[in-house]
Amino acid sequence: MKKLLLLILAQMLAGKTNAQQTLTTDGAWCWFSDPRAVYADAMGSRIITGWVTKQGDIQAAMLDASSGKSETVTLYEKLEVDDHDNPAFAILPDKNIIALYTWHGRNEEPKGVIQNTTSKPLDISTFSKAKVFKPKTDSLLALYKKDTYTYANPFILKKEKNKLYCFGRWIGYKPNMITSTDNGQTWSEPKVVITSKVLDTNNRPYVKYCSDGNARIHLIFTDGHPAVEPLNSVYYCYYENNAFWRADNSLICKVDALPFHPSDATLVYKATPETGKAWIFDITADAKGRPAILYARYPTNEQHQYFYAKFDGKSWVDNKVVEAGKWFPHTPAGQKEREVNYSGGMTFDPISPETIYFSHQIDGIFEISRGVTQDAGKSWKISPVTRNSELDNVRPFVPRNKTAKNKTVLLWMQNRSYIHYTDYDSSILYKIIQP
């Protein structure tokens, strides 16, 4: 009898962990400040993540997805109501956590980058008070004219003596890079990484980053915003050993010779009027360091198509995943949608380039599915993560720093209402994905 009760209890617990759970009923995030979630250690299901509340508070959380226990702290009260401001995280060599985030650079007065750092390893209750700094120099501003701060993307490279890197859209409205050799206590002067050939301070390349944590940081990026660039293409490069390189390992430039132009990097997808402009969602790499990317094409604003591109060592194998529907914001009646390229979103399992998660429209609701490919995206085995939902499920993300011993935890936004990135009422949900 005792064994039977234990078996029933184990089955109940297994069912609970396999069901979707709510981490917070008040949280939203964008997809250009990452990693927005990281595993806290090399095994299990403890995760550090964060979001922006509908009051504009910046919050961080420690979640144990197996037990469902979580702790939440506020890093910055009432920063602004804008989902672009979500924090991104890195775990420092001493196991303290650094959180980096920004205002959304729409302000007349540029405000800067914000960081909080814990004083005890993996203890979010010890996050410091927010420190605001402005990565800029007078000489850089004289060249690139525009002083603005949006997004933060931190990474640590062990091979460079644990140097901390942070990327964001800052001076010139362009991707910038700063580094720290003392765990974020001080930062280097910024460098503009990518720019248009003729300076245009309204042009803003969008970048997604990922790192192996050792020596390399991968970048995919666009010409600009798809609502601005009629032919928004996709490019790839990587940083390693004080230089930026193309997919074929040929040199673009040394760091001292930055910036470079999009056309200097490796072209992944060339937009045409027929196939549509593009936007980017995620990037990872296989055990050989060969990148895989997820992006969307828009033949029309209401036709969003998801694509998977994998570099095979010589060229890009680029295949369609699925028709995704259209944008997910709920356009008010009689108004024109302002963010027609807000697809539901895609993400990789970061240690399995063959496994992706994506949000797409099914019977008018955005649901999340899991896709697995064994042939570089030519065919897909698709299974449901959410179905028969009453609310939209968007912007999925698998935490970074994942190892083979970590349980696969998928997090995503669920929207009671999403009108605009400054007008939302969302939750953050999660689910342990069974092998």
Automatic annotation (TrEMBL):
Keywords assigned by UniProt, alphabetized: Signal
InterPro entries linked: Sialidase_sf
Pfam families listed in its UniProt record: BNR_4
Signal sequence residues: 1-19
Protein name, UniProt field: Exo-alpha-sialidase
